[in-house]
Amino acid sequence: MNTAILVVDAIAIITAPLIALAAGYVLQQWHAARERKLWIFRTLIGERATFLSKTAIAAMNVIVLEFRKNPDVLSAWEKFFDYVNDKNNDFKQRDVQDRANTLRAAMLLEMAKVLKFDRHIKLPELSRGYYPDWVSKPDLAGREILLRTFDSMQATGGIPLALVFPSVPAASGQPTSEPSLQQ
Fold first, then answer.
1. Which residues contact 100 (CB under 8 A, 6 or more apart)?
2. pTM of the full predicted structure?
């Protein structure tokens, strides 16, 4: 009887720390995965008025990886992704922009459900963002220049460039013309 108790005690002494270590590892992995999902969500919420920023694009690029076990998020992401990458959509049109914003808000709402924020955040809140006028006017002007440049590049096949070298007066004792291969 004492031998059986000693064996059980020995097994408990050996396995208890291993079980605690494994449980700690699982909790740490779960927490890290949640933090990555929160980073994506926070980034997209913070950039929802300007969803084409570098950080927003970086966050959107990892949605498929981090939310791979959440089919509703992936479905909403695919709808948004397909819509914004459809070459038939003219994003200069207000209705096209509104549809993209609606799809993005639906995707954010699905993420909020996964992260248990859906009780606090509703679709109308996700559809709007703050972008002050003093920031948007120069940004819109830059965007218009960028769009016109891309249109020009598509129409002409590129941007014509000319290299112009300014004439520099020769230093004393230097030849006044460039040597040619014939000299």
1. 80, 83, 84, 89, 91
2. 0.62
Measured from the Cβ of residue 55, the count of other Cβ atoms closer than 10 Å reads: 13
Q: Are 101 and 127 in contact (CB under 8 A)?
A: yes
CA distances, 157 to each of 114, 149, 164 (Å): 45, 11, 22
pLDDT along the chain (183 residues), means of 10: 82 86 88 92 85 84 93 95 86 81 91 89 74 57 73 70 66 60 53
Work out the angle at residue 114's Cα, subtended by the Cα atoms of residues 50 and 45, and round it to the nearest 5 degrees: 15
**Cβ 97 vs Cβ 30: under 8 Å:** no
- Beta-carbon count within 10 A of 178 CB: 7
